[in-house]
Each structure stands twice: as structure tokens, then as C-alpha cells.
């Protein structure tokens, strides 16, 4: 009668049982010792990505360097490019003619300050003349005591409108 402590006695073929055990042990050793196929694929994918990334970064650095060198070569030997303007110097607003009386001179400076279109229509003024507002106001202040009531009325009309706007 077989004893319960001896497992080999229950099987008829002892050789077959030993082969099964050996195969199972080899299978377990293979699982423990070798990395899985999925893990190998992930590691290989990371290696490829790192290689491609390094390759791409290298090309980007080289192209940026070539671009900078090209710009330096193109623009270093040339004179600076200046913007062209229509005229070299814009004329200042000329002083009114000495032949004009105080009333017309005061109107000239009033129109220069407040109504440029009327100044161009009434007096000969260059097309793109620059008006010095401080000088025009100073000249107008010096002429105000010398003007008559009608001219003073015209000047005050412009000055009142100017005060309302601000």
C-alpha cells in the first residue's frame, strides 16, 4: 500500500512526471530571467525616439547657425539702409511780409495757430511748412494791443472755440 508521504508512488509513469516538472521549471526560469517582449519593444522605441530626437536637434542647430552666418555675410558688407523721405528739410512757416499792417499780421498768426486751410488760402505759404506754435502765439500776443475791434473779434472767435474744445 502506498504511503501518503511519497508522491511518486501515485503515478504509474515516473519518467513522464519528471519531464513535466523539468519543463515547468525551465518555463519559470525563462519568465524570471528574460525581460518580456512588450518591455523590450518599449525600451527599443525609447531608444529610437532618442536617436531621432538627437538627430533632429542637431540639424536644427546646424540650420540656425547657417542662417545666422548667411545673414551676417549679407548684411555686414553693406551700408545701412536709410528710409527715403520726400524732402530733406521741411520749411518753417515764414514771417509775414513787413508790408502788412498789424491787423493782417495778427490774422496771419491766428490762422497759423487755428486755421491752416484759411492761412494757405489767404497768404502765400509753402505746402508742407512747419508751424512753431510757441512762436506764433508769442507774435500774436505782441500784436493784440495794436489791432482794431473787427480783427480782435475774429481772433477772439478762434480763441473761444479753442478754449471750448479743451
Following the backbone from N to C, one meets helices and strands in this order, namely HHHHHH
C-alpha termini separation: 125 Å
What's the tally of helices?
A: 6
β-sheet strand percentage: under 5%
How many whole angstroms does the radius of gyration measure? 50 Å
Describe this structure in words.
The protein has 166 residues and is an all-alpha fold. The protein has 2 domains: 7-82, no CATH class; 102-161, no CATH class. It is 65% helix and 0% strand. Helix 3 (102-114) crosses helix 4 and helix 3 runs parallel beside helix 6 (149-165). The chain is rod-shaped and about 140 Å long.
Short description:
Helices cover 65% and strands 0% of the residues.
List the helices and strands and how they pair.
Layout: H1 14-33, H2 37-76, H3 102-114, H4 116-122, H5 133-143, H6 149-165
Helix pairs in contact: 3-4, 3-5, 3-6
Entry keywords:
166 residues, mainly alpha, 6 helices
Amino acid at each position: 500500500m502506498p504511503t501518503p508521504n511519497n508522491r511518486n508512488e501515485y503515478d504509474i509513469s515516473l519518467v513522464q512526471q519528471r519531464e513535466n516538472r523539468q519543463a515547468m521549471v525551465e518555463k519559470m526560469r525563462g519568465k524570471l530571467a528574460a525581460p518580456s517582449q512588450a518591455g523590450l519593444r518599449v525600451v527599443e522605441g525609447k531608444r529610437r525616439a532618442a536617436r531621432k530626437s538627437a538627430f533632429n536637434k542637431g540639424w536644427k542647430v546646424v540650420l540656425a547657425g547657417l542662417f545666422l552666418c548667411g545673414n551676417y555675410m549679407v548684411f555686414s558688407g553693406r551700408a545701412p539702409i536709410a528710409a527715403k523721405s520726400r524732402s530733406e528739410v521741411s520749411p518753417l512757416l515764414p514771417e509775414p511780409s513787413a508790408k502788412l499792417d498789424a491787423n493782417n499780421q495778427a490774422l496771419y498768426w491766428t490762422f497759423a495757430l487755428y486755421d491752416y486751410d484759411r492761412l494757405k488760402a489767404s497768404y502765400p505759404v509753402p505746402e508742407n511748412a512747419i508751424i512753431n506754435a510757441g512762436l506764433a502765439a508769442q507774435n500774436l500776443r505782441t500784436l493784440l494791443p495794436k489791432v482794431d475791434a473787427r480783427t480782435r473779434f475774429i481772433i477772439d472767435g478762434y480763441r473761444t472755440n479753442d478754449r471750448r474744445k479743451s
